User: Fold these one by one.
Assistant:
Number 1:
Amino acid sequence: MPDSTQHDPSARRQAWTSYWASGRLHSCATSFDGNYTGVIGASWRQAFSALPAGTRVLDLATGNGPLPALLWELHGDAVQVDAVDLAGLAPSWHEAGKHASIRFHPGVDMESLPFADASFDVVTSQFGFEYADHGRTLAEICRVAAPGASLRLVMHHHGSRLVQVGREELLHHAWLSAPEGLLEAARGVIPVLAAVRAGRPPDMAAVQAREAYNRAMVALGAAAEASAAPDLLLETRDTVHRLVRDVGADPGAALRALEVLAGSLEQARLRTAEMIACALDRPGIEALARTLSRLCPQARVAFEELAQAEGVLAWAFSADGIGASAG
Ligand SMILES: C[S@@+](CC[C@H](N)C(=O)[O-])C[C@H]1O[C@@H](n2cnc3c(N)ncnc32)[C@H](O)[C@@H]1O
């Protein structure tokens, strides 16, 4: 994996645990309100529409459970769902009593599943499977799949709009935390403003800190203006502006809030870098199809691009007839 942060499992897990703790239903909350709509939502609805009562579904890398939520909407408790994720989860829609047919398993690595052989009729993952080791996870999927089971994956596409925005946001992350970026400028100006508010006259260093902050704000405005994906810059600008505006005679609270912001930006950067590193190009998805065909020669494998007006959104990958002893 290209990004060094990919090798730190606890940082990866924590970055997603923090994200899910916010209560968001899925990982593209800024692109899709509610659950997924458009071609991605339609593809899942079609895949799920004809599931017979009693079907056992395993959702890998489930997050706060957009696919279990959709299965509940379509089938209620007629379908049994086990939903695993490496991270800690907080699916606010899920009530243990009401949704007893849906079981969340946080802290579970899909490369090593805690389920018996031949346990599931359908295995799914939305923007999740591609984050793990493909060969080991496919071997686990084939092991826990019942004879004749099917696999449905929606995965990040190398050329999707989400990935393009992600690449641009990585540049914005780099600038925000660079020595001349906004965070460093805010670290410099907050103590200066606090001193002024405490009644001390500004010295030369204070003037320079204010100038550096103003320069960073102007540079951010220009970068946002020139960007097709300015949200990260604009949201960070607004948060920093509020912190700086409200600083009191003691800079402590504002400086602590700034470090909280820096930490959450670093987690967002990590998630974005991971998405880009995991996104599959055509040779990548062809290799995945070959690996599955080797592990499970009887499987009928297919894949296609999911696209709508704004361009390609994802890969849809499916395999029917998986499961150890399917003939
Ligand atoms: C982009 S989110 C997708 C979540 C959800 N399926 C959705 O559609 O919103 C990727 C998820 O994969 C999980 N993940 C990454 N590697 C994993 C692994 N090896 N095993 C299980 N989950 C993993 C992360 O914790 C994160 O929740």
Note: The chain has two domains: 4-160+279-322, 162-275.
Number 2:
Amino acid sequence: MKRQIAVVAGSATVLGVLTAVASTAARPDDDPVRLAATPEAVQVVGLPCLPSSFQLGMTNIGSADLYADVELAADGPVVLDRRLVSSWLPAWEPDHTVNARVGVTAPRDAEPGSYAVRATTHGAEVTVPVEVLPQPPKGSGDDLALGEQAVASSTHANFDVCGAVDGNTNSEQWDTLTGWNDGTSGVFPDTYDVALAEPAPISRVETWTLDSTRYPAARYGLRDFDVQVRVGGAWRTVHAVRGNTAGRVTSTFAPVTADAVRIVGLASNNRDYSRLIEVQVFTG
Ligand SMILES: [Ca+2]
């Protein structure tokens, strides 16, 4: 006991000392919780709609049920969507891992580099390396919508509103959260907005609706929709698409300086949902 007190004596506060001593006294040294992360390392880009995550795995390898509090901390510019994961961990046999999703983001001005997330509980710790990647180019010929903040009138529970700005246009991967599906079956219009990082003289929008082998656009894609741009806070239609059966629709128009783009879904070919696999915005 003397040695334990000596170890924590360097703590900055009296509260810290009391907490440390209390927890040391209450728990055995060999706390039977094991922590793991899947994947073991994470990459993140400092854009609002390119979220990363890992699954925190908590395993009780002991013979008694327990309640675990796992504290999470990130260094550098890395931001976590939770600081604490609490879970009841029954002493299942064989050992059973309980997983909790931890969202990882970085601000737009984050310095690219190597950082880490640490998850700790009594007697166990796991470190998750986090690589903050450089920003993708957003110049002429680049997709200005990539990773930017998307907002929709509604989003089906099985989808992520960011799926249609994640850079993936492959409809065959529709079920991997790379598409957006509205949440109001049979009710139109639906809107999907992307806010650009800054106003830009845009002249082309590529709208990718669902078009896979199993779900062809002619049966499941957006049939009627308006492409709009936001100028001075007002939405302006730059292309009215009607009777579409293609997976990709290119809208070109005279350059207009706008700070957001909206797809207004008016009807789909099977009359239930608006579905987008990607929305891309270009200045040229
Ligand atoms: Ca996508």
Note: The longest helix spans residues 14-26.
